[in-house]
Amino acid sequence: MVAAEETTRLEVSVQRAVEERIRRTRILFPRSRKKQRRPCLSSSSSSQKKTTGFEYGAQEDETLFEVRRKAKFREEYEGSCARDAADAMSSRAEHQEPTSAQEPRAPLPGKALSLATPSPSSVSSNQANGSKALARVAQPAATKHEFSASVIRRQASRWPRPEWHAPWKLYRVVSGHMGWVRSICFDPANSWFVTGSADRTIKVWDLASGGLKLTLTGHIEQVTGLAVSNRHPYMFSCGLDKQVKCWDLEYNKVIRHYHGHLSGVYALKVHPTLDVLMTGGRDCTCRVWDMRTKAQVHVLTGHDNTVCSILTQGTDPQVITGSHDSQVKLWDLAAAKTMATLTHHKKGVRCLAQHPKEYSFASASSDNIKKFALPSGKFMHNMLQHQRSIVNAMAVNDDGVMATGADNGQLWLWDWNSGNRFQEMETQAQPGSLDSENGIFAMSFDVTGTRLLTCEADKTIKFYKEDLEATPETHPVRFKPPTNIRRY
Asked: Segment Disordered: which positions (predicted)?
């Protein structure tokens, strides 16, 4: 009996010591929410035995080791993060330029999160108070977005700012042709203008009143091109009948014919300083004529489709042609050779326009309107907010206003320097015409650049001018620099 009592007393004391150790471990290192699966002792019977205090104490020792290992790893990781943050702040302070209004900020090293190892005194105090011995000291001083890409200084947009232009409005409609109006040209004195139509006639109009002055006949097909010489009293016309005619404006009759095209002629241009005439047609060629002798000087070949637009320069013997094969070619007029071939367009180029003062030009297609520099033909930029319509006509005045007209009746006005579209209009078919006949085939500014005339499919000629009552306050510039700038 005495031995049994001693054994029982020894087991009770050992059990109490184990429970006291377990209680201290729970106070110092509270267990996580995730319950760990305790190992079970297998026995011969179907019932499972309970874990003893010694086995549970061994498991708590493993948990204590794992907690200390994770705490050490966390302390090293947060210390490295704090060092990286301090280095970033110091580099930012070095690259930031000091100003008079704001001094450069000193780098603020962040404080790392630390996990203190409990000392014997802290263990005793925690045992007395029943509180946790492990605690996080402080949060880092640097915020989440302190070390982001904002350290790099953002550059200003290089896209030019658009100038303010007054909106344009319709103020007159002139009718008289019996077919589509296909071409227009102004008198160098800015007193009259001429138009060519699908009714095979050429009409001379008074610019001030819009009245009809004269009707010239002679073509047997549509009149597609007109040009008035600024050095001679001559007017030139071309049409789908393969003919190129020279009209004497003093006698109002044809004095010369230029034969050579194998098909319809679509474009015509007179050189401003030389006595030469350029024509382009469906035979994929641009022919250069001597104005006086009617001799064919050059035949510029290289296009694979109809040549429908021609430009010339007075300061340089250079010719620019646009074709339905989506190419724009720059030619040396003296050598009759190609200087450059621009293949930026993916659709046929129907019209070209040159700035009266700047050394640049624009080409229009259904995919986009592009601006190029002369004489090299370097691409500058695209016109913004293009609606991808078939552009048939284009004109530019001295103030940098470019107008474009499409076959669906859309009329757009652009700022030449920035390519910003500041106005959009849609022409209305006149009474007596079909609703679908609202296309624009030709347009031109007068010599002063204050009036815009459009030749349309409803057999009319429309006059536009600036709205003098408009101000930058009533019609502000709405412009946003493009983010997806195309390099071609």
From this structure: 25-61, 76-136
Residue with tokens 């859309």: 410
State the first-to-last Cα distance of the chain, in angstroms, to the nearest integer: 107
Rounded CA gap, 414 and 452, in Å?
14
| Partners of 195 in beta bridges | 184, 203
CB atoms within 10 A of CB 267: 25
Task: State the Cα–Cα distance between residues 15 and 21, nearest whole angstrom.
Answer: 10
Number of residues written out for the chain: 488
Q: Which tokens go with 31?
A: 């267990």
Token reading at 370: 């592009």
Mean pLDDT across the chain: 80
Q: Which residues contact 488 (CB under 8 A, 6 or more apart)?
A: 344, 379
**Amino acid found at 329:** K
Which one, of 314, 310, 313, 315, lies nearest residue 300 by Cα? 310
Domains and CATH numbers, the chain: 1-27+69-86+114-130 (no CATH), 168-466 (2.130.10.10)
Given a contact cutoff of 8 angstroms between Cβ atoms, the answer to whether 222 and 182 are in contact is: yes
| Strands, E assignment, 375-483 | 379-382, 391-396, 401-406, 410-415, 421-426, 440-445, 451-456, 460-466
Would you state the torsion angle of the CA atoms of residues 380, 384, 386, 392, taken in this order, to the nearest 10 degrees?
-50
pLDDT in the model for residue 368: 87
How far is Cα 406 from Cα 438, in angstroms, rounded to an integer? 9
What is the structure's pLDDT at 316?
Answer: 84
- Residue 375: asked if its preceding bond is cis (omega within 30°), the reply is yes
Predicted TM-score (pTM) of the model is: 0.66
The CA distances from residue 11 to 8, 50, 57, 417, in Å, are: 5, 16, 16, 99
Q: From CA 454, how far away is CA 456, in angstroms rounded?
A: 6
Q: Could you tell me which residues come within 8 angstroms of residue 396 by beta carbon, excluding any fewer than 6 positions away?
A: 353, 354, 355, 356, 362, 402, 403, 416, 445
Q: Evaluate whether 433 touches 181 at the Cβ level (below 8 Å).
A: no
